[in-house]
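Private note to self, pasted from the team thread so I don't lose it. Backbone tokens:
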């Protein structure tokens, strides 16, 4: 979760100025596909104009130069993709940074190293810079409630309560409640009197070390105010509240790892001036040398009013090569026409299945009915038997077959072998595997019937023979007619 520092001359002098905002290059300089919004379709909480803008950034990429190397630095291109959602538990800055950096360091360790770096640098400076940082911290966490209402409707005061002191604090609050005070008024009075305010670098270090775990030394108490007075008191009785990462933490994180950190901020219609400015890059430069490529984080804002309403998510930066305009023009031409060709192949693939599996066999089966040859009857009867078996197999084995990526193409090739006249696969399978078993089975049934007939008495068998005579006579007459 993040907040922006106020624009003041003192803060600008205390904190090292960040490098110029990263811009994205013209698409002819970078090997990039046609803008495709798909990478951002699954990201929740974005408006259409934000998705379009982020898709354009993804397609074009961004250019970065190491400011430590001056004008001689070579440009590096990066393709930015959303790295997935992270839990909104107050640790999102460090969780997102961990993912963007490749997951080599845990989120809690990142928080501890960030705080350690800040305290080390803060301890070295006992002059103007230190006082300016203290003023910035007071502005963020102990604001002057007599001003600032033109920027925020709600302002917050952060206090730190030792976990070991919570029973004593609760008892003191209850005493005031028993005397007739409202719970929130009593809590405000006790917490302000007995808890630590976040008002300088030392208290900021204690505050930013809190990750909402039982091993934390302090719990965060939040007093929310409107211009009319106290609004609510978040007592955080379960101790799960974590310190939201702010710009001071991001700069210390950048300093610790000697990498610039760029926050790609995307704000909706409640905060943007126009669509072209709904996404912008906010740079954070380390206090010292830059030795590695930058880290990119995505901030999904909920508006300018309501501090702490922003949320960090990782952006995965993939290096991309830079090419000349001539090569880019050729690549764009090839990509455009390859897109048309791929679309054409997709339609062919979709139509080939029904045509080969159903339309052609139906047409050929109708032709076989009118043909005097017995071979085509055998071919298409065999095909429809195998088609029924294949359909039944698909219904039964669907949970397994759907894991085979090319199953549909395999089925089309198999059916083509079954139906095409050059192969006559259906007739082959019927003759090779089915017909022999049927003949053997029918012969066995005939033999069993003969044995059963011979074992019966003449008196019992004579009625059956009499019943068969009319049918045999009819069949013989039909055979005789065909012979004539």
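Design output:
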């Amino acid at each position: 979760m993040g907040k922006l520092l106020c624009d003041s001359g003192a803060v600008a002098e205390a904190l090292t100025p960040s490098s110029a905002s990263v811009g994205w290059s013209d698409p002819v300089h970078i090997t990039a596909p046609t803008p495709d919004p798909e990478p951002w379709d699954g990201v929740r909480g974005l408006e259409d104009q934000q998705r379009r803008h982020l898709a354009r950034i993804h397609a074009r990429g961004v250019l970065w130069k190491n400011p430590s190397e001056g004008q001689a630095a070579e440009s590096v291109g990066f393709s930015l993709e959303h790295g997935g959602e992270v839990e909104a538990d107050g640790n999102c800055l460090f969780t997102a940074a961990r993912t963007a950096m490749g997951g080599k360091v845990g989120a809690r360790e990142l928080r501890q190293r960030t705080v350690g770096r800040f305290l080390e640098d803060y301890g070295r400076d006992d002059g103007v810079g230190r006082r300016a940082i203290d003023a910035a911290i007071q502005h963020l966490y102990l604001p002057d409630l007599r001003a600032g209402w033109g920027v925020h409707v709600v302002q917050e005061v952060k206090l730190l309560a030792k976990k070991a002191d919570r029973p004593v604090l609760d008892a003191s609050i209850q005493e005031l409640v028993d005397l007739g005070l409202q719970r929130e008024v009593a809590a405000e009075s006790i917490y302000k009197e007995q808890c630590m305010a976040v008002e300088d670098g030392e208290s900021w270090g204690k505050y930013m070390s809190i990750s909402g775990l039982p091993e934390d030394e302090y719990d965060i108490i939040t007093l929310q105010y409107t211009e009319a007075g106290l609004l609510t008191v978040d007592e955080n009785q379960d101790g799960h509240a974590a310190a939201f990462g702010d710009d001071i933490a991001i700069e210390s994180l950048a300093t610790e790892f000697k990498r610039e950190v760029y926050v790609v901020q995307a704000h909706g219609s409640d905060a943007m001036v126009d669509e072209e400015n709904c996404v912008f890059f906010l740079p954070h430069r380390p206090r010292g040398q830059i030795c590695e490529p930058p880290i990119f984080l995505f901030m999904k804002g909920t508006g300018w009013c309501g501090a702490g309403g922003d949320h960090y998510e990782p952006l995965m930066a993939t290096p991309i090569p830079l090419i000349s305009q001539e090569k880019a023009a050729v690549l764009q031409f090839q990509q455009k026409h390859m897109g048309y060709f791929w679309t054409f192949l997709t339609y062919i693939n979709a139509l080939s299945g029904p045509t080969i599996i159903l339309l052609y066999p139906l047409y050929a089966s109708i032709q076989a009915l009118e043909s005097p040859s017995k071979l085509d009857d055998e071919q298409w009867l065999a095909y429809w038997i195998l088609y029924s078996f294949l359909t039944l197999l698909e219904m039964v084995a669907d949970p397994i077959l759907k894991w085979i990526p090319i199953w549909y193409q395999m089925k089309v090739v198999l059916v083509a072998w079954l139906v095409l006249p050059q192969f006559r696969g259906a007739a082959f399978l019927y003759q090779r595997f089915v017909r022999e078993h049927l003949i053997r089975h029918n012969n066995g049934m005939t033999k069993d019937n003969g044995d059963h007939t011979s074992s019966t008495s003449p008196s019992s068998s004579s009625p059956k023979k009499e019943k068969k005579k009319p049918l045999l006579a009819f069949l013989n007459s039909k055979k005789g007619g065909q012979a004539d």
